[in-house]
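[Meeting: bench + compute handoff]

Bench side (C.D.) handed over the final construct sequence. Compute side (W.E.) agreed to return the predicted structure before the next meeting so the bench team could plan truncations. Sequence as handed over:
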Amino acid sequence: MSTKSKSKAFSWRPVWGSLLLIPAVVAALLSQPSVRRGSTPDVVLTVLAWLVLLAGECFRFSSTLYVGGRKGRQVVCEGPYSLCRHPLYVGTFLLALSGGLFLESSLVVLAVGLLGVVYALVTIPAEEKHLLDELGSEYRSYCERTPRLLPDFRKFTTPQFVEVKIGSLWLEFRRGLIWLLLPALSLILNACRAQAWWPHLFRLPFPLS
């Protein structure tokens, strides 16, 4: 795939995310809460959301650490890249999934899942085709022995030293701080949704509780 074709496939990523996630979040906020605040399901979902959020942060930060200044120049196959070929996407998916869990919305969780399918069928194959053109047989061998998205923790390997790109780490750290605002924002929104004055326009099917 040419660089132009790859760029075109990548340029649609925000569009897919907007088309799937924004309507789902708006619908979730305007619907009847499916979980009573302070109930056992509420606590379980909050704990699960925190675990998923932290897992996503770990995947993204460690992936940025290992890919360092080598991205596009050589095959990176250590650390999280020894578990699966696209740990950055796995981290992003987990972060988005945590948002649906914090909002306690099955609709948002479903939208995140559909977005993950779109990435798996369109974006990731486009990126892999580009990397195969750039890196050749070494990348093909890496693909043959490493899962695409589902991490295999038995395959974990790491060198003693890795090349670090401070600018990328700092950028990912700032992104991580923004994601950490999600629990607080969700807490405020869930508290508002529990009030009588909040507009509850409909009740969504498939509650999480």
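W.E. noted at the follow-up: The radius of gyration is 19 Å. C.D. will use this when planning the next construct.
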